């Protein structure tokens, strides 16, 4: 009798084990998608979702897994996965400053030259080639982001001011408006440490004829041009919101849309699709976007495009290439532009329907075509972080501006020889 | 032989747990220790022995020194404040008062929230035109740059931590208070001891283990401060709120400087080890007071 009980128990245990194995197998097979795409969150993620839905409609039996990650997380995950050749992703979204590292390390698959055509904005396509603009193609541009400068037309008219053409003009506008109306910040920008503050500073640095590296690749921050640029940024801070040092994209957008800022040093078109939406913006039709002002040199709009490439270890490279081709079509880009994603095709920028909706598109296209990329170095993240730290030390009076630039230059030089 | 036979089942039963511990804890620690003596090119899969260079680099790095100072500053101030406030609240809640049943769950609510939720709430409050400055304005006080002023930012982080974790210290101390027999206090009262004397000479010595436990647990936790900095200040302004954890994260996961990040981790591990040793000695090994 006892033996029968033991046999029953054994049978029950075996059945439970089989069920567990079956369940595990089902889970594993359910998790294996035909295509794994990894990209950014926010508006980029919403656009990718729309693209995935469109592609699945055309290919009904395709199972696409879309991972939407914040900026810093995405870089880490990509670097770890690509370096270890895990084959986790079939198609990856990259900031243009990450691409030099990924391409130089041979982590991306070359793409056929036929994926590019004359309608794509040349400056954005060039950033997907390695080792230079004539090299092989490794990534296609997906988001035509370019840094723009914003100002309030109504306020400039009210105070009889002209749209700023130089950084001296920006300072004058900020000073005039803030002095006359203390509730309005003369200027607003992202002052948070790291990427935000550096992104605001670079167009000023370029306008003053400076750069992070000179033509020979040496650090060029301890220079009169860089010092003059930082002096301008610090002068502008006096007319910015009190806590601008912790401002990110959301705070800049809010300040503009609430009508409490007269100018913004940097606005990325992907941030402001709702600038003319009366439901959220109190300044409908009043904010003008233009290329950032010049100073010693002409305007230098900064490129901040997002690209898509196929990892060398992608398990479904063919399907990834098909999806990438679909993403790059005029029709798809037009649909994604309606969500707020800046396109990379000239024809989409010139689409009358879209221009009616996003009145800055003609200026944005001009800025994109004349755009300047950030330095193409493998460790830009580290360089940007070091520079961002020292800019903030100067901004918060923890360090004298000249000393901050000198020390930043030394530290970046050290990071470059590692 | 007998001892072996006696301990064999114990060893067999605990071996899976020991194996998991070895794989998940000891191996990474050993790897970090080894990496701290190497210059590692993460992308190129190459490594070169550099001896103590990574440690020397750390000692020369002003940001690292600042991170150590900030970590200790945060850990000491926040832990002491939380235990002090927790003690005050525990003494209050030991008594009976109207609304105690409602106040108690409300008091421990912040501890139940995730740190990111807490940080998100406080980020709104810390805004220059946010709740806290509106509150200050209502009593004619000047607004404060809670997060953008380098001299204020660390105190703001401490404030958030105290808000979130004082309830934990409070619960530990309250448990200790409730374990004190009423007769002892009554006897002291009958003998003419004042309220202060009863607190200082009876209550405090009897809850010293709970105070020590709360202090050590909070010290260990605050020493690892990462998420609040990540969510509220990013280590800024400048490096005013950079801590050891965020420094290691930046070096290791943003710049992939594996060698210096490992050396900093070893340094952090040593300090944490001292705290843990204290915790073990004071709380686990010491016999309970009779």
Largest interface: A-B, 32 and 29 residues
Percentage beta strand of chain A: 5-15%
Total of DSSP H or I helical runs spanning 4+ residues of chain A:
17
- Multimeric status of the protein: heterodimer
For the termini of chain A, the CA-CA separation is 75 Å
The strand line-up of the biggest sheet of chain B is: 1-2
Into which percent range does the helicity of residues of chain B fall? Answer: over 70%
| Main sheet overview of chain B | 2 strands, antiparallel
Strand content of chain B: under 5%
Global outline of chain B: flat
* Class from secondary-structure proportions of chain A: alpha+beta
Low-confidence stretches of chain A: 25-30
- Please list the strands of the largest sheet of chain A in the order they lie side by side: 2-1-3-10-6
Distance between the termini of chain B: 39 Å
Question: Low-confidence parts of chain B, pLDDT < 50 over ≥5 residues?
Answer: none
User: Percentage of helical residues of chain A?
Assistant: 40-55%
* Rg value of chain B: 24 Å
Structural class of chain B: mainly alpha
Largest sheet of chain A: 5 strands, mixed
Topology of this protein?
The complex is a heterodimer of chains A (418) and B (290).
Chain A (H helix, E strand, L loop, with lengths): L1 H30 L3 E6 L1 H17 L5 E6 L1 H14 L6 E5 L3 H6 L17 H5 L2 E2 L5 E2 L1 E5 L4 E5 H6 L8 H14 L14 H13 L16 H14 L11 H9 L5 E5 L19 E4 L15 E4 L7 H11 L2 H10 L6 H4 L2 H6 L3 H9 L10 H16 L5 H16 L2
Parallel strand pairs in A: 1-2, 1-3
Antiparallel strand pairs in A: 3-10, 4-5, 6-10, 7-8, 7-9
Chain B lengths: L1 H34 L2 E4 L4 E4 L3 H8 L1 H33 L5 H13 L2 H12 L4 H8 L14 H26 L3 H9 L4 H12 L1 H16 L3 H6 L11 H11 L3 H28 L5
Antiparallel strand pairs in B: 1-2
């Amino acid at each position: 009798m006892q033996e029968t009980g033991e046999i029953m128990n054994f049978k029950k245990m075996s059945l439970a084990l089989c069920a567990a194995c079956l369940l595990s197998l089902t889970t594993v097979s359910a998790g294996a998608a035909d295509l794994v795409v990894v990209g950014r969150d926010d508006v980029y993620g919403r656009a990718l979702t729309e693209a995935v839905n469109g592609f699945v409609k055309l290919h009904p039996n395709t199972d696409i897994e879309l991972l939407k990650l914040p900026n810093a997380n995405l870089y880490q995950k990509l670097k770890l996965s690509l370096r270890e050749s895990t084959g986790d992703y079939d198609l990856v979204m990259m900031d243009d400053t990450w691409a030099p590292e990924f391409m130089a390390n041979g982590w991306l698959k070359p793409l056929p030259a036929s994926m590019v055509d004359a309608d794509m904005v040349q400056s954005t396509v060039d950033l997907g080639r390695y080792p230079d603009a004539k090299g092989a193609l490794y990534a296609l541009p997906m988001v035509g982001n370019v840094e723009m400068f914003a100002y309030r037309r109504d306020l400039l008219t009210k105070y009889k001011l002209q749209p700023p053409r130089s950084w001296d003009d920006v300072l004058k506008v900020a000073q005039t408006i803030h002095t006359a109306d203390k509730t309005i910040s003369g200027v607003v920008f992202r002052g948070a440490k790291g990427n935000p503050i550096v992104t605001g500073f670079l167009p000023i640095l370029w306008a003053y004829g400076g750069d992070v590296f000179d033509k020979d690749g040496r650090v060029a921050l301890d220079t009169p041009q860089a010092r003059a640029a930082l002096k301008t940024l610090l002068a502008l801070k006096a007319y910015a919101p009190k806590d601008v040092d912790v401002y990110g994209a959301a705070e800049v957008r809010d300040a503009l849309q609430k009508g409490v800022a007269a100018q913004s040093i940097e606005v990325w078109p992907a941030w402001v699709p709702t600038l003319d939406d009366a439901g959220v913006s109190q300044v409908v039709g009043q904010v003008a976007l233009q290329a950032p002002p010049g100073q010693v040199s002409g305007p230098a709009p900064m490129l901040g495009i997002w690209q898509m490439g196929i990892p060398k270890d992608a398990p479904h490279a063919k399907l990834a290439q098909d999806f990438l081709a679909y993403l790059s079509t005029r029709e798809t880009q037009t649909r994604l532009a309606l969500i707020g994603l800046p396109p990379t095709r000239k024809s989409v920028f010139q689409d009358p329907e879209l221009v009616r909706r996003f009145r800055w598109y003609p200026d944005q296209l001009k800025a994109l075509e004349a755009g300047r990329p950030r330095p193409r170095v493998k460790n830009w993240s580290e360089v940007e972080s070091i520079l961002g730290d020292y800019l903030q030390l100067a901004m918060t009076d923890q360090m004298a501006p000249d000393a901050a630039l000198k020390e930043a230059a030394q530290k970046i030089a050290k990071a470059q020889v590692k | 032989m007998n001892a072996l036979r006696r301990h064999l089942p114990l060893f067999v039963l605990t071996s899976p747990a020991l194996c998991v511990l070895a794989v998940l804890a000891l191996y990474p620690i050993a790897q970090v220790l080894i990496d701290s003596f190497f210059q590692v090119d993460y992308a190129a899969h190459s490594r070169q022995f550099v001896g103590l260079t990574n440690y020397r680099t750390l000692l020369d790095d002003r940001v690292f020194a600042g991170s150590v100072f900030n970590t200790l500053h945060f850990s000491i101030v926040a832990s002491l404040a939380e235990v002090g406030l927790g003690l005050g609240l525990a003494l209050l809640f030991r008594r009976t008062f109207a609304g105690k049943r409602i106040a108690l769950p409300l008091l421990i609510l912040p501890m139940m929230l995730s740190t990111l939720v807490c940080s998100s709430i406080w980020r709104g409050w810390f805004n220059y035109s946010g709740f806290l400055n509106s509150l200050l304005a209502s009593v004619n006080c000047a607004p404060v740059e809670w997060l953008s002023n380098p001299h204020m930012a660390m105190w703001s982080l401490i404030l958030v931590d105290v808000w979130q974790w004082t309830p934990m210290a409070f619960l530990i101390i309250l448990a200790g208070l409730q374990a004190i027999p009423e007769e002892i206090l009554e006897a002291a009262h009958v003998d003419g001891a004042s309220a202060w004397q009863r607190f200082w000479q009876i209550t405090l010595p009897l809850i010293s283990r709970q105070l020590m436990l709360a202090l050590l647990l909070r010290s260990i936790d605050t020493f690892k401060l990462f998420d609040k900095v990540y969510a509220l200040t990013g280590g800024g302004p400048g490096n005013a709120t950079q801590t050891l954890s965020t420094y290691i994260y930046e070096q290791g996961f943003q710049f992939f400087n594996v060698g210096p990040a490992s050396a900093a981790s070893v340094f952090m591990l040593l300090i944490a080890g001292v705290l843990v040793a204290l915790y073990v000695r004071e709380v686990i090994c010491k016999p309970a007071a009779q």
